[in-house]
Amino acid sequence: MKNLVFYIFICLIVSCANDNKSSEEDYIRIPDTLVVYNTMNSTDSMASKSDIISKLESFTIFTSINVSCATCLFEFDKWRAIGKGFKDNTVSIVPICHSKDNFEMLKYLFESGDIKPLDFPLYLDDKNKFTELNKHLLDENHGLTVLVDTDNKILLKGSPIDDQTLMKKYTKLINTQK
Question: Which has the closest alpha carbon to 77: 49, 39, 51, 124?
Answer without folding.
Answer: 39
